[in-house]
Amino acid sequence: MAGILFSPDWICCSAEPNMPIDFYYIPGSAPCRAVLLAAKAVGVELNLKLTDLMAGEHLKPEFIKLNPQHCVPTIDDNGFALWESRAICTYLANQYGGNESLYPKDPKKRAVVDSRLYFDQGTLYQRFAEYYYPVMFGGAPFDEAKLKKLEEAYEYLDKFLDGQDWAAGSEMTLADISLASSVSTAEVNINRLEFRTRFSNKYIAGCWFRSVQIRKCHQLAEKVQEHSAWLR
Amino acid sequence: MGCRGSKVPEKIVLYYDKRSAPCRTVLLTAASLNIKVELKEINIQKGEHMTPEFLKINPQHCIPTMQDGDFTLWESRAIAQYLVNQYASNDSLYPREPKRRALVDARLNFDQGCLYQRLLNFYFKLFSEKVKDDELIKKFLEAIELLNTFLEGKLWAAGDTMTIADFALAASVSTAECFDFVDLDKYPHVNKWLARCKGNMKGYEEANQDGINALKETIANFK
């Protein structure tokens, strides 16, 4: 592999992978879209392998051999298998990222990005899933109490964004990518006018998301729209 | 990045509840790094997390929350990552090499998103509705089964050395000891690995076992 740089603190490889990285995904999944966005931001090519969960493609023996947890997103980087979207995002940045601001090396700055990634997984996206999955997959009615919990998560995100442009500081990071994927999924899936009124317009988080779309990251926005459109 | 081997701080402040698995993850990490911790108990049931003082420190009012000088951080696994990145003199607890690091990150996410989440799901129902939900318990045991698969032929959860992933998973899995309806004997790799953690993790008794014992007491009291 060409171009491996050694620094006293950090071993990083800024070269391209030998071959495009195999990426097992479905476009409707927010965690999958986060990886698409991260790969785009890092400049790494993904070999897209649509994995139709409804058709049980994730339960094929070859896929289970690659990933016994048989979930998406999963990558296979020339023999290195990895799942969990946020671990994939940080891996891509650590292994191939030249742009340090996406996932800073400074421990304190990195810690804030990590903290927001866990907030996304454990709180924001978690509460969206708890609210929406029973309806989408189980035919259950919407539960107002669960919507209130999701709204609370938006309130937290709002507080994190107060006085700064991005979720983890003054520059866009993997945290914004992961959170934007979650927020865009909630916005697209929950088609109730009330939700849009309560969430999109009310919170700074709505502005942040629109600024992601409008201001800095056209590629980011395009990818989000492209894949969100699949759901409509 | 990381493993600056900066001089360990005089102390860090930790807002915590020893019964909480994520809090114990941080305690295990600090113990391994010989970082002194000033403990500040926050009792969520008594609403101590909602005081104006604590809300100022952490608007998400969750525990564990750490203060290292004027740097405040929450989310247990991010705290563990930070402490190693900032203060460890070598990288064994959280390797710098990207692929090895990625495996630790993946297991930390598995802990938060799958294993610990499912434990929370059945525990919350037990605590708030006094209902033992067999479906939720089954989902938790499925997560343990997955961990059992990950651990086959391995000493540690995320590579050849003990890492912060083991701290997080040990804190979560050991919490299952509080419930007599969870039988870990059926998962031999998990059982051996947990025993290995107990025998090798620095300060395990104080950092983890004390909290498990306190949680057992709490559970006994609300039956």
Can you give keywords for this protein?
heterodimer; A: 232 residues; alpha+beta; 4-stranded mixed β-sheet; two-stranded antiparallel ribbon; 9 helices; 6 strands; B: 223 residues; 8 helices; 4 strands; globular
Q: Which helices and strands, and how do they pair?
A:
The complex is a heterodimer of chains A (232) and B (223).
Chain A: E1 4-6, E2 11-13, E3 21-25, H1 30-42, E4 46-50, H2 61-66, E5 74-77, E6 80-83, H3 85-96, H4 107-138, H5 144-161, H6 174-189, H7 193-200, H8 204-216, H9 218-229
Parallel strand pairs in A: 3-4
Antiparallel strand pairs in A: 1-2, 3-5, 5-6
Chain B: E1 12-16, H1 21-32, E2 37-41, H2 52-57, E3 65-68, E4 71-74, H3 76-87, H4 98-129, H5 134-151, H6 164-175, H7 188-200, H8 204-222
Helix pairs in contact in B: 1-3, 1-6, 1-8, 4-5, 4-6, 5-7
Please state the structural category of chain A. Answer: alpha+beta
Summing up helix and strand content along with how strands pair, one would put the structural category of chain B as: alpha+beta
Radius of gyration of chain B: 17 Å
Measured by DSSP, the beta-strand proportion of chain B falls in: 5-15%
What average pLDDT do the residues of chain B reach? 95
The count of helical stretches of chain A stands at 9
The low-confidence parts of chain A are 1-11, 213-221
> How many alpha or pi helices of chain B?
8
SSE string of chain B, helices as H and strands as E: EHEHEEHHHHHH
Tell me the major beta sheet of chain A: 4 strands, mixed
| Biggest sheet layout of chain B | 4 strands, mixed
Unreliable sequence segments of chain B: none
From the structure provided, what is the oligomeric state, counting identical versus distinct chains?
Answer: heterodimer
Q: Overall mean pLDDT score of chain A?
A: 81
Estimated share of beta-strand residues of chain A: 5-15%
Number of strands of chain A: 6
